[in-house]
Amino acid sequence: MDVKKKILLVEDDIALAGVYRTRLEMEGFDVKEVHNGEEALSTAVDYRPDLILLDAMMPKISGFDVLDILKNTPETMNITVVMLTALSQPKDKERAESLGVDDYLVKSQVVIGDVVERIKHHLGLDQ
Fold first, then answer.
1. pTM for the full model?
2. Strand (E) positions, 20-121?
3. CB neighbours (10 Å) of residue 104?
């Protein structure tokens, strides 16, 4: 039995987070859900996820700041980060890429199945 891949889901919309968590668990992932940037940072270090699905627009610490901190912290710098955001401007995507994001998905342009597919791709599970 393979060990489940761990996903840290960072989304301040509780309803949407629940939908994603349910779907990811159905797909066989171990999912931990948090709702703000501060929790994301502390949980990333403790939980050691294989991948972080990160919202950009959050209270307190934005997803961009979370990404920046994750990629500059030795314990978390190698974790794959996929941003899932409402921000569709090229400048936002460029900012995320400059901070080292692994993938950038715009909520209005993807359905949950697309997101699951991208996650599997990044974790090498899409063979």
1. 0.96
2. 30-34, 51-54, 80-85, 103-106
3. 21
Q: Digits of tens for pLDDT over the chain (127 positions)?
A: 578 999 999 999 999 999 999 999 999 999 999 999 999 999 999 999 999 999 999 988 999 999 999 999 999 999 999 999 999 999 999 999 999 999 999 999 999 999 999 999 999 997 6
d(CA 127, CA 120): 9
In angstroms, how far is CA 117 from the centroid of its own chain? 13
* 3 state SS for 75-118: CCCCCEEEEEECCCCHHHHHHHHHCCCCEEEEHHHCCHHHHHHH
